[in-house]
DNA sequence: CATGAATGAGTGTTCATTCAT
DNA sequence: AATGAATGAACACTCATTCAT
């Protein structure tokens, strides 16, 4: 939880006068503590039912302190995903780049996706359950979805060029088809309170994406 | 979808001798007006931000009147979906029963699903965006999802028996895979503010479910 | 419960055309039903928590009907005690007049008082618990208390004249002393949910009034 | 009676170095101000008609501030009597312990009781008028009454042992007889808006308790 | 007369946000 | 920078009262 924070501190301000360094550390620390406390409370109570007081208590700071770091409750949510989005897409990129075939890339993307959510169940709860509303976070979530769909699109197009993927695809739909299925699988896992291994769903899912459920479909990667 | 309301409104202007009849109609009418107003406001503002006053204004009744018909704000949402669920699943059943092959059944189910949501965009907005939370409505939405997955399961098993559907499927995953994809397609349409024809997505979606995106997969229904 | 009502009807309008008779009976009946329903609900819920709707339900009439007979909720309470006060004081007078000595008169008054409350526990609950407030019913309760104290005063003065009662008494205080003690005994009985015989408290109470709790006091009536 | 409040107000203007001290004082002060404002408003309007807003206005705080110190409206009433009960019973105990004979103890108890209520007329109004209901505060008031009756019982039993008090007494009744009489005397004084000296009623009352109103009763203490 | 659906004023309570310390 | 007490706007919900039928 605090490891990432440390990383960020480093990358932000490498050296500085002791005082400033410490206080910036403190600042970062408190910022991250509030961020995490927010997600914890959002996951537990739901974004709307969560109160600033409870987040402050969870973070071990005073109510007013929240406002020194964040504009308001929604801002905590926003900034959390803003930060995590970068981390996670970097991981996605790395995963994809390490594979050759489109099928493999897709498998690695989805595996990485499921890993990221399995690693941080609170984030998963909040993202799946709370940010799906049209009325809040919409822009941010849409942007995340769009970036994700771009990755899928990239993989599929590469696959089409390489020959492993059908060419007669309605791309916009295919992207939603994949994203939606992965999403639902994560939501189910969240609702099941994480009682089983989410990452193990990746391969069977990819199989369904590639071969579908119909008979007589030969394995395309063979 | 709006048939009930239309009926009631028609009969309002009907002559009738019996007092009880008229008042029952009035009651039904007001009940339905509040139900619809609730969904309208929930769709516009979000369930949490919606206020009883705004729903009452939208329905053209006084605030207190809401409480003559509903226990509280959540009850409006609950009763709406309770009622619609029966309608819609009856339509689903009829659609499925009118088809022979598993593929056709699946196509009809999904078409019917997309039709229902396209017919009532407000309902779609609320269902997709607001009832996805873990913390509220969970039981009701879960039950709806479960019933939907049962239908999918039934179709797939029939298809496996008939031979059109692969037998090596992880059923629980397949159900989610289909539901999730359909769901995402609806959500995308909702976010796009219904600017295109949702129902036309049914056939391409089913094609993806059956054949997947991989090459060399022969058309199973052929 | 309804017997008294019948009496009143008779005394109000003995004969009349069938229609008018019946309707006046109906009116009286409904009036009395509401009155009783009011006391029942006041006793059960407390005057403030009682709602017009609940009284109407208890009386078997519509909410609006209450307002054809009573100004408002407090008016039900007021009229109930207005009516009962006359009944009860008539019984008090009869009881007193049937006795000779002051001691006997006091005993009969108190016995009659306890009887009246024991007969109608709902009334007792409401009178003891709900009308004791300074802010409502004050005038009416004060008047009832004053009339009661007058009776006591009358008895005591007679007793002083006859010689059975001390002459060195601070009358205003003595009246409260007796009323307060009787009152408390009734309240206790009410709180005990009427599990014992209230009337049997009359004699021991009178004994305390007359002899006090000190030793060496010879029985004055001897 | 008002001592606590006075203390706090005094110390408010005191200088003090410690932050914590001041804030604790402030807290106590505000708590006491709300408590007092509550009783003032309850006395003026009645507990039910009193609104949080009016109490807040009377206390010079915002509505929401009330809820920083009290659970709800009833809690103000409850805490007030909780606190006062201890004070007052301590005074009762001290009063009783300073006397020898049972008669004297009883006189001191009643004097102390009347003093306490005379000192704080608002409390007297609320206690006499508002807490007498069966439906609210019942437990607290019953407990207070029970403690009071215990004191009376203790005194009487001692008197019986010493010989000043009759032995043929129905104790449960005697306790109510005394409590009821004192109570009524206080209620009368409250209703008379405190226009006369309540404490002067103590001696005549005790005289009535001991000697009763009958003739030929010799002074037991003589 | 009787009804009971409808009204909307009124209130307890919550909680995001501010600001003096 | 940090605090957390105080604020007061906002909202759900109740219920006495009215009035069209």
What does this structure look like?
4 copies of one chain form a homotetramer. Chain A is mainly α. Chain A folds into 2 domains: 3-70, Homeodomain-like (Arc Repressor Mutant, subunit A), CATH 1.10.10.60; 74-211, Tetracycline Repressor, domain 2 (Orthogonal Bundle), CATH 1.10.357.10. Helices cover 73% and strands 0% of the residues of chain A. The termini of chain A are far apart. Chains in contact: A-B, C-D. Chains A and B meet through helix 7, helix 8, helix 9 and helix 10 of A and helix 7, helix 8, helix 9 and helix 10 of B. Chain B binds a DNA duplex (21 and 21 nucleotides) through helix 2 and helix 4.
Short description:
With 222 residues, chain A is mostly helical. In chain A, 73% of the residues lie in helices and 0% in strands.
Short descriptors:
222 residues; 2 domains; Tetracycline Repressor, domain 2; Arc Repressor Mutant, subunit A; homotetramer; disordered N terminus; 10 helices; disordered C terminus; DNA-binding; 73% helix
- Roughly how many Å apart are the termini of chain A? 42 Å
Strand content of chain A: under 5%
Helix content of chain A: over 70%
CA-atom Rg of chain A in angstroms:
20 Å
Which structural class do the helices and strands of chain A define?
mainly alpha
Q: Residue-averaged pLDDT of chain A, rounded?
A: 86
Which fold name is given in CATH as the topology of the largest domain in chain A? Tetracycline Repressor, domain 2
What is the CATH C-level name of the largest domain in chain A? Mainly Alpha
Uncertain segments of chain A of ≥5 residues (pLDDT<50)? 1-19, 218-222
Helix and strand sequence of chain A: HHHHHHHHHH
Under the CATH scheme, which architecture of the largest domain in chain A would be assigned?
A: Orthogonal Bundle
Q: Largest interface by residue count?
A: A-B, 57 and 57 residues
CATH superfamily of the largest domain in chain A: Tetracycline Repressor, domain 2
């Amino acid at each position: 939880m605090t490891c990432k924070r440390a990383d960020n501190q480093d990358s932000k301000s490498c050296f500085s006068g002791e005082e400033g360094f410490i206080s910036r550390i403190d600042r970062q620390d408190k910022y991250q503590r509030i961020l995490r406390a927010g997600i914890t409370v959002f996951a537990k109570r739901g974004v709307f039912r969560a109160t600033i007081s409870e987040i402050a208590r969870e973070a071990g700071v005073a109510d007013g302190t929240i406002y020194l770091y964040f504009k308001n409750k929604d801002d905590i949510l926003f900034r959390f995903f803003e930060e995590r989005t970068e981390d996670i897409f970097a991981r996605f990129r790395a995963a994809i780049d390490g594979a050759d075939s489109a099928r493999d890339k897709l498998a690695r993307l989805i595996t990485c996706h499921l890993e990221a959510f399995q690693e941080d169940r609170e984030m998963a709860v909040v993202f799946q359950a709370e940010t799906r509303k049209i009325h809040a976070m919409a822009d941010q979530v849409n942007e995340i979805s769009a970036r994700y769909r771009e990755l899928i699109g990239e993989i599929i197009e590469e696959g089409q060029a390489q020959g492993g993927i059908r060419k007669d695809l309605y791309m916009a739909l295919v992207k939603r088809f994949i994203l939606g299925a992965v999403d639902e699988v994560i939501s189910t896992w969240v609702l099941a309170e994480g009682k089983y291994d989410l990452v193990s769903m990746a391969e069977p899912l990819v199989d369904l994406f590639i071969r579908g459920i119909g008979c007589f479909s030969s394995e395309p990667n063979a």
